[in-house]
Amino acid sequence: MPKKILIVDDEEDAISFISAVLQDNNYEYISAENGIKGLELAKKERPDLILLDLIMPEKSGIMMFQELKKDQELRKIPVIVVSGASEVTGVDFKNFIFKHIEKDAESNEQSMAFFRPDDYIEKPINPDELIKAIKKTLKD
Question: How far is CA 6 from the centre of its chain?
Answer without folding.
Answer: 8
